[in-house]
Amino acid sequence: MKRNVLRILILACSIQLLVACAGEQKEKFATYHAAGDNGSQSAIEKLLKEEKSIKKGTAVFVDDVVLVGVQIKPFSKLKRTKIEENLQKKFEKEFPGKDVLVSTDFKISWEAQKLMKKELTEEELKKKIKKLQDLAKEET
């Protein structure tokens, strides 16, 4: 009797562990483009996927402004500025003539994700992006 209870308990724990570890895979890279240009969206996603130290990335593309917020994997945080500079150069090379801002700051990434979810007019979106650019340039 005790063996059956022990077997059932082990089986229940194993099933619970498997179910808990099989969580939904969230989208790692998201882009928002006001004009709906899929070519630039795929270019942004390609650049973000090439970088192995990025856990999650969000890009907002409006007119001549490209705002990219990235979250870095925990062991890569020591190289945060180097990764940010490297991505900045890659994006400036890919989008010449555009105002590119790449930030590894969590607040910028989070705010960019919130912008994507909201239904904003293009003018409101430009204002929000300008505020985020100012926030990113601010020294803390």
Please, could you describe this protein's structure?
With 140 residues, this protein is of the alpha/beta class. The chain contains five helices and four strands; from the N terminus they run αβαββαβαα. The chain has a four-stranded mixed β-sheet with strand order 1-2-3-4, sandwiched between helices. α2 links the parallel β1 (29-33) and β2 (54-62). The longest helix is centred in the N-terminal third of the chain and has 20 residues, at 2-21.
Name a few traits of the molecule:
single chain; 140 residues; alpha/beta; 4-stranded mixed sheet
In short:
This protein has 140 residues and is an alpha/beta fold. It has helices at residues 2-21, 38-50, 80-94, 106-117, 122-137, and strands spanning 29-33, 54-62, 65-72, 99-103. The chain has a 4-stranded mixed sheet with strand order 1-2-3-4, sandwiched between helices.
SSE blueprint and pairings:
Elements: H1 2-21, E1 29-33, H2 38-50, E2 54-62, E3 65-72, H3 80-94, E4 99-103, H4 106-117, H5 122-137
Widest sheet, order of strands: 1-2-3-4
**3D shape:** elongated
Structural class: alpha/beta
Following the backbone from N to C, one meets helices and strands in this order, namely: HEHEEHEHH
